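Format notes (please read before filing issues)

Several people have asked whether sequences and structure tokens are stored in separate files. They are not. Every record keeps both together, in the order shown below: the sequence lines, then the token lines. Line labels are part of the format and must not be stripped during preprocessing.
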Amino acid sequence: MERMSEKREEFALLKGLATGDARAFESIVEHYSPKLLRKAVRLTKDVDMAKDLVQDVLVTLWERAGQLNVATSLEAYLNTMLRNRFLREVSRSTLHEKATQQLLLHINQMQESIADILTVTELEQSLTEIVHQLPANMQRIFVLRNEDYSLREIAEALGLAEQTIKSYHTELKRRIKVALLARHPDIGYPLALLLVSLLTEN
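Then the structure lines:
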């Protein structure tokens, strides 16, 4: 009975939202914001970014109130919107910048090992080009791994099974290794393996 009551309440809120009822929107914000914020913090690991994402989701919900197509539940719909905006941020701005900084840190740590074979600038350029040639999901996994996200956290962020993420992660490591060796055969297999491991593992 409680479940039925929740569904009726949700239906009423969505109906009100579709007609531009500000009170319905305020009720949605009050009810769903805390859950969305907790999820956003788990995804971003950054409270300020999480708040911005939630605000963006809710503003978009209001702007598209008349065109909503909620197939399952409003909570699931909002969670999907949140995840999509998070993934958009992964592909640009803050997270990508942080991942690049982490990548440079790894490269600096490896500088002595590779100094006699190629310059850090060459390696950085090669890795940037290689990563940009990966499929979108693999690029996202690479960025998030360099942000110290676990494979389980990445699976939640991408809305995919953890085993799928593990398979993608294994394949992206293989592709980076093969591409590095193709571009810089002098580094040899053991060093290429070390580079890939340092760049893709927590």
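For reference, the curators noted about this record: The radius of gyration is 21 Å. The chain has two domains: 2-90, 93-200.
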